[in-house]
Amino acid sequence: MIEGLAALYIFLLAGFTGFEIISRVPVILHTPLMSGSNFVHGIVLVGAMIALGIAETTSQQVIGFIAVLLAAGNAVGGYVVTERMLEMFKTTGKQDNKGAHK
Amino acid sequence: MELIIQISYLLAAVLFILGLKQMSSPVTARRGIHWAGAGMVVATLVTFAAEEITGNEQAATNVMLIIIAIALGGGYAWYTGKRVAMTDMPQMIAMYNGMGGGAAAAIAAVELLKAQAAVQSGSYSSIPDYLGADVTVLAILGAIIGTIAFSGSIIAWAKLDGRLNTSKLLPQQQLINLILAVVLVVLAVNVYLSGSLNLIIAFFVLALVLGVFITVPVGGADMPVIISLFNALTGLAVGFEGYVLGNAAMIIAGTVVGSAGTLLTHLMAKAMNRSVANVFFSGFGTGPAAEASADIGGTQKEVQAQDVGIMMAYATQVIVIPGYGMAVAQAQHKIWELTQLLTEKGVKVKFAIHPVAGRMPGHMNVLLAEAGVPYDMIYDMEDINADFPNTTVTLVIGANDVVNPAAKKDPSSPLFGMPTLNAEASQNVIVIKRGRGTGFSGVENPLFVADNTRMLFGDGQKVANELIQAVKEL
Fold first, then answer.
1. What is the pLDDT of residues B413-445, one digit of tens each?
2. Which of A9, B144, B267, B320 has the most Cβ atoms closer than 10 angstroms to its Cβ?
3. Alpha-carbon torsion B64, B66, B69, B73, what sign?
4. Taking residues B326-349, what's their average pLDDT?
């Protein structure tokens, strides 16, 4: 379990990490990256599974079920769409990518 | 087992960060999504062994429900994700993002309901007494953010998908939204204090409504900013719910996306010379601004594909400026074919991409990449703007606002101040366009009536085909 100040450190460091990652991305990759980050927050699936796992009453189970359903859609859809977009970037015949994007 | 689970979560978080990092370069981008995907699979699998799930009395039923829900939700997303056309990508991202926000909100709902049940049974005095004050606050915050991102993203999807065309819901919408937001905060505080079931339900319903009300008035041209913002918000909500569940992978991944998404949203808004607040409150591109813009006078001069073909074949340099119209017409493959023909004839061809061309930043790059255009032929606005005076022909296909010179010269234009591509500085400008109307934002474009501009009317793909024929015949 992560509590209190330790969580604050994680929030802070993860925040800086995200900032660093995006600040060096060329415009060419903005849409795939938005899609990729959309996939990454699909990790909510793990939380949704736990939410359904701890459910005790029917109403909690129903909401937990919806949570897993939606989260799985986020994770799988985010992956498929990002993968499809990035697949296209392999078709460049040239190795040299200097100059065009900085 | 607990240790294995925690280490797996850590591994997943590392894979997410490295994956995103690799996605920041075209060379390694593909490997990046595979790494992140591997992280997701590991995290999902170990969660089945989590004590919270296996220790529950209803473990058998719940695990079954989890598997069914993953199969249904994942199957639906797999099917739609594989089938969606590249042009419709933005609304699908909005949709999947909304689902994530909804999931985060639902997690909060389960936690709050469990706490509420505990309070009702009399063993605890209030929700924070059961969950802890910090957890309750973050659960409620995550619930607000996730729910708004959920209903807002669905509206964004419906608008981009052409299922919802209205931008007006109620008079004084902004004022109503403000009042609703205040009521929502009051409700949230009361949920924290009292823990009544009705209050919790009212709280979620109001957050849903607010998400809808915030998104409906946003103009179509601003949609990329909204989608990006909701993406960041979902990340934040996931991070908060991660704290609620004590799950490190969720905290790290959610917060990384939250901050990366916030920066991306800011970059996009800046590219359009608008602040994020402006996007929400000015209602740009929703009608009145377009009507108010003055008649620019002048006439559009038409030209035939035959003549344009000759003009380009003997040019020294051609710059192609694609816009959303090219995406709609699916003309990118034909344009690439044309580019190859021209290159064979010794013409230098470049592609100029405005940061907000299309419906999302980078949207055009994806489409051009799909057609096979190498990314070293594609230039960002800052890199190419000085090159327009040396250009014989600038071919604008399906773009409008991003080449509008009024953004530089006319302070009364709603676009004023937005950086644009200097198409007007080239020797000849050819605009391929379906009709004479205004663009997505509804703003008149003086470029279309400029002396060095000729209009080539028709469907983008058909016109590109005619151009190919014209060049071939030479």
1. 777 778 889 988 999 999 998 877 666 566 778
2. B320
3. negative
4. 90
A55, B360: Cβ pair inside 8 Å? no
Neighbours of B311 (CB within 10 A): 19
**Mean pLDDT computed over every residue of chain B:** 87
CB B256 within 8 A of CB B236: no
Residues of A in contact with B245 (CB under 8 A): 47, 50-51
- Residue-wise pLDDT tens digits, A30-68: 788 888 999 999 999 999 999 999 998 999 999 999 999
Are B320 and B395 spatial neighbours (Cβ–Cβ below 8 Å)? yes
Tally the C-alpha atoms within 13 A of residue B35's C-alpha that lie toward its C-beta. Answer: 18
Least-confidence region, from A54-68, B73-87, B187-201, B398-412 = B398-412
Residue B410 annotated among the catalytic residues of the structure: no
Establish if A72 touches chain B: CB-CB under 8 angstroms.
Answer: yes
Tell which residue, B108, B117, B110, has the closest CA to residue B135.
Answer: B108
Best mutation site among B2, B63, B66 for testing chain A: the one with the most A CBs within 10 Å? B66
Report how far residue B380's alpha carbon sits from residue B9's, in angstroms, rounded to the nearest whole number.
Answer: 38
pLDDT of residue B441: 63
Chain A hits for B80, CB-CB cut-off 8 Å, are 77
| pLDDT class of B179 with cuts at 50, 70, 90 | very high
Give the Å distances, CA to CA, from B293 to A13, B220, B399.
Answer: 47, 18, 19
CB contact under 8 A, A92 and B241: no
CB–CB contact B369 A29 (8 Å): no
Give the per-residue pLDDT at B439. Answer: 61
How far, in whole angstroms, is CA B98 from its chain's centroid? 11
Instruction: Collect all residues of chain B within an 8 Å Cβ-Cβ radius of residue A21.
Output: 17, 20-21, 24, 256, 260
Which member of B161, B295, B387, B401 is catalytic? B401
CA distance B224 to A34: 10
Cα gap B255→A43, rounded to integer Å: 11
Interface test with B, best of A33, A57, A70, A92 (most B CBs within 10 A): A70
Q: CA B131 to CA B240: how far, in whole Å?
A: 14
Rounded distance, CA B321 to CA B423, Å?
Answer: 8
pLDDT score of B225 more than 90: no
- Phi and psi of B455, rounded to 5°? -100, 135
List chain A residues with CB under 8 Å of B64: none
Cβ proximity of B23 and A29 under 8 Å: yes
Three-class secondary structure of residue B40 per DSSP: helix
- Please name the residue of chain B whose CA is at the shortest distance from the CA of residue A99: B376
